[in-house]
Amino acid sequence: MTDSPLSPEVTSAPLGRVVATERKPNTPHEFHFWTALDSPVGIGTIVRVEGALPVNGQIPTIYGIVVEGFSYTDLQTPIHDMLGHDGTPGGASFGATERAEIRLYTAAVLRQLPEEPLQPVPMGRVFLADNDDVAVALRMDSYLRDGANTGIPIGVYRAGGTDAPIYVDADFLIGPEAAHLNITGVSGLATKTSAIEWILSSIFTHFPAQKGSVAAVCFNVKGPDLCFLDQPGPVDEADAALYEKCGVPVKPFEHVQYFAPYKADGYSLNTLRSNDALLHNVSSLTWGLREVLQYAEVLLNKDDVDAKADALIDFIRERIVDRDFSDPLLGNKRYLVRSFADLEQWFRDVLSGLEGKNSDGWRTHHVATIRKVRNRLSNISTRCAGLVTDDGAVSDLPFGSFQDRTVYVIDVASLEEDAQDLIFARVVTRLREHLEKRDLGVNHVVVFVDELNKYAPNDGPETYVRKMLLDLAERGRYLGLVLFSAQQFRSQVHRRVVGNSGTALYGRMDADELATPGYAVLSPAVKIKLATLEKGQLMVRHPHFTQPIFVRFPRPAVMRGRDGAERYPQAVDIDLEAAVVRSLRTLDPTITLGWVQQAVGIREEDEIVRARNATMRERPADVRKFFLSQLRPLVAAQTVARPTTAAVRSAPADDPYGF
Amino acid sequence: MSAVSLTPPASPHASFSSVARALAGLLPNSQSVDSGLALELTTANTQPARLISAAVIEGRALRARRVFEAPVVGFAAFLDGTQQSFVACHLPGGVPIVYGTVGAVIRDRRNQRLFTWRHAVEHRLYAPRANVSSAVWRSLTEIGVAVHDTSEAEASETASEHPHALREAAVHRVQKDRELAEQSLALEWCSREERPLFMDGGISGSERVARAACAIGVIKSHRTLYASGDALVAVLGLGYAERSSVFLVTSPKRASVASWYLRIRDPRGQDPMWGLVRLEVAPPGAGGDGDVGRRADEVSRWILAEVAPVALPDGRWDKMVYGVRDCEEFLRAVM
Lengths: 659, 335
Known about the structure:
The complex is a heterodimer. By secondary structure, chain A is an alpha/beta fold. In chain A, strands 12-11-17-10-18-19-9-20-21-22 form a ten-stranded mixed sheet. A six-stranded antiparallel beta barrel of chain A has the order 1-2-5-4-3-6. Chain A has a two-stranded antiparallel ribbon with strand order 7-8. The longest helix of chain A is centred in the middle third of the chain and has 21 residues, at 417-437. In chain A, 43% of the residues are buried. Mean pLDDT of chain A is 88; it is low at 1-6. The longest helix of chain B is centred in the middle third of the chain and has 30 residues, at 163-192. Classes of the chains: A alpha/beta, B alpha/beta.
């Protein structure tokens, strides 16, 4: 990091002088300086000021970042210029002399050395910051020490010829000192998703070994954004240079696992990554009654879950599901409820029993409450069809065996909002539970959630998901559970969620958003720069940086969602046998459609799906044998002998009436 | 050479304070002065307004002549000087000790922008030696700043011991020092350069400068008009881009120069002096062009090219070119 591309002449020559007037004085946190007209200084440039007089025996050095710029001439009013050229703009270009002009900049102080006593910035010469200056100015020197390096490159600071990698502190990005990252910016520039992909690559490359292992769980909430993280994408020369500068290899993620529920048909994966060529690391995500009932609160709104309904749901959860249950009302019939189908049968019997006895209550639960809970719970399997199975089959993330430097993508883009909420709530809760018990398989998990203003809005009703996000933002860092979130409008996200994000990134911003109070601390020039940021540029706020810094980051070395969707088109909807072939081929490529058709024969669709799911869950060595074992044997066809009937007795030969 | 800047700083130069403190220490009987106003602002211009007939050297009579060709950029640099003087203290009897600062600069024009070619700033004390004791004079010389005797001035100027008269004598001496500073820079330019130099004020103060083909003096104040009778009517009636015939300005104490009037802004609805400048160049045969008419047209075109950008907000903007304002701004910053 000591390499500087600048020639010694450029870095050693002052580019400006600090100035201060009574009307515009310098303070300990802000100073002003002027430069030559052709100086390479702009908004976001980091500069170094060398004082002239020693303080406590040390010449003060001040680092600052340019936050505002002014340019003016000695004109007192514009009308003087107009008068001088008789109102003809064309004539102005022939002026013999250009007016005296100044470039005056305001810089916010990043750091003062010595740090005590903290004094107003003195008059002095201003230099362009080189790489070492940038490290000191941003206090990166405190966490880039040999043997205790916790720096994670987040981009490259580029200004006036300086090309310095910017590191954030892993202790403040992943925890435990601070944690979480939030990115905001307008949609359509692919900045937010690209930045997250780049930062994950950087984390996987540079996360310090002494801090343990790290994995990422990404929720793909729209389109094919995260569907091709394991496929290489084009990286141009300029971006390759950024990769090299940051020490991150130019390659896609090596270990990615995809999870997606089925469609309502129960056998086609509900994801844009359903192309046959990419199914090797795609698993289904299906949950049964028990998994869903734990998070019924997510799917039932406040009106549904009153105290009475809540009590009945608790009763079902504690006493019915997975328990051997009998009751005199039910004629002492034994129940083992393991699926929505079992539960529906149980409800039906309870209500029949009540009707038979002409009773309006059972075990303190009113019949109306029972009907309401039955209605709501039964609806879940319909509303979350494809995710929630009637038969109780479970296919889940590998909680307990998470792998280091692996990305787990859960594609919820095509799901209903309820199903998205359910997945989100359950996955994050399970992650937290496992991290608390230290048995997840990794020490740290980064959870990426896009469209945060939808899941944790600033206003609106209190939802389970929002409560969970708040909990994650406020307490996750102690567990190693880190939230990387993104949204278009930061002002519309619950402020405790974004406020707890130690690191904040800003892409190009909408002017309306910048006009909200949350951005009042930024100077007008910085706001304008934010409103016009190029693709690939970010403003970074980090606990170690006293002021926001502008950086460039490279395009992720993965295939863009749009490109992937074109190259690997989504599989067309197919019949059940073809779906089974497609699934089983990921385990055994020799399986053919003919074999499957012969194997399933005339069996019911539910049975075939159950066998396929069981095979995919078990991933057996002998796929054919296991699949067949899951199918109920068919009774062999028997040849039925033609019944012999007694021959009609023929008329006696001597029958006098015979014909 | 040039007029005094009308907008000096409101308070004296910082070094004035240290000089005033030193004087108070060395001259315990002196009385310090709090006034921050420059003497140039409080001293009336005593030069009388007058008309002088001059010998016309272009044609037979002084008349208006149109500058037909378009303005063209000709000047390479601009020279101007300023002065500031303040009473540092009064000795018993009201004798003022004046602290004066003079400065001059040449601003070189490169690629339409002005850069400092050379500049000079000098600080001095001004006191009438004839009106102070030897001990006091010795004390003044111990301050560390050059001391100029204002009683060396002309007898008429020192005749009175009136404090105001003594103060005016000091101001005049400061003015002379400023002219010397300007002349020094002009001489250096003329010895090193051949490119045209725009000098704010006349060029006749120095024989060598007055004979240099590169020096062009531009006078904005017209306390003395070199025309009378019909010639005066012609001069004051000049229209935009019209000049007078060239005449010769001679003086026993100054070098002779060729001169003419030029109207650089449309005077309609304005004062007769509006936009009127007088130019001085080397006379024919003394370094100047033999064809004074052609030379006057050429230089007039150069001057007319300098009307933009305007020198506003300076009150003399109708006659002042931007290069001169730039010189004044520079000196204001460094003095």
